[in-house]
Automatic annotation (TrEMBL):
Name recorded for this polypeptide: Electron transfer flavoprotein subunit beta
InterPro entries: ETF_a/b_N (IPR014730), ETF_b (IPR012255), ETF_beta_N (IPR033948), Rossmann-like_a/b/a_fold (IPR014729)
Needed cofactors: AMP
GO biological process: carboxylic acid catabolic process
Alphabetic keyword roster: Electron transport, Transport
Gene3D superfamilies, A to Z: HUPs (3.40.50.620)
Superkingdom: Bacteria
Pfam families: ETF
Protein family membership: Belongs to the ETF beta-subunit/FixA family.
Amino acid sequence: MKILATIKRVADPDMKIKISEDGTSLETAGAEYTYNQMDEWGVEEALLQKEKHGGEVVVVSVGSPDSVNELRKAGLAVGADRAIIVETDADLDSDAVARLLAEVVKREEPDVIMMGKLSLDTDRNQTAQLLATYLDYPQATDAFNVEIADGWATVGREIDGGTNTKRVQLPAVITATERLNEPRYASLPGIMKAKRKPVETITPDELGVDIAVKVKTVKYELPPERAAGMIVADLDELLDKLKNEAKAF
C-alpha cells in the first residue's frame, strides 16, 4: 500500500500578526514558520496504516524551498519513506494547491491521500475536497477512525451534531481530526535518518499546472480591541446593560 500525506508550511500560530500599512498583505519579515499541526494527524495515520499493511509513505508539500524543513521534521523524521516538494514562492489559493497535488497523485498513484482537515493559517478547509473533485476520487473528511481492508476504507467521521460512518473505495482522499490518533515524536535516530532520505523537487511548470489564483485577498483587518470590563452594582444594572448596551437579548 502506498499512502501520500500532505504537510503544509505555515506561520507560527503563536506569532503576533502584523499587517502592512496599506492593509493588503501580512508582514513576513522576521516571521517564524512551522508545519501545520493538523497535518500531523494525517501523517501519523499514514504511518499506522503502513505498520498494519506494509508499503510506503510519501509526504508532499506545496510551497517555498524552505518547506523542505517541514517535510523532514514532520514527515521523514517520524518514519515517512521519501518526500516531494512542489516548489513555488507564489501565494497560492486552495484551488491551485489542489490542482498541483492532483498532478502529483497522478504520478505517484497512491492508494490513500491523507490530509489534515484544514490549515491553521487560512482555515479554509477546502483543498482536500477540491483535490478529490479533480481526481474524481471518493472522499471522507473529518475522520476520527480509519479501517482499511480489501480495497475499501471504513471511516468514522465527525459531523454537525454527532458522528457517522462512511465506506469509500480506494483510492480515496481522507482528512484527519485530532481524535484520529496521537502523533509520535521524532527520535534522534529518526532526525538523523531524515537528512539522508530522498526529497524530490518538482515545479508547477513540470506538472503542467497554471497556478494563477482564482481567489484574491483584497484587504486584511485586525479585529477591534476588546473593551475593558466593568463592575455593576446589582443584577438589575447587569440586565439593563446586557439588554440596552450589549443587545444580548
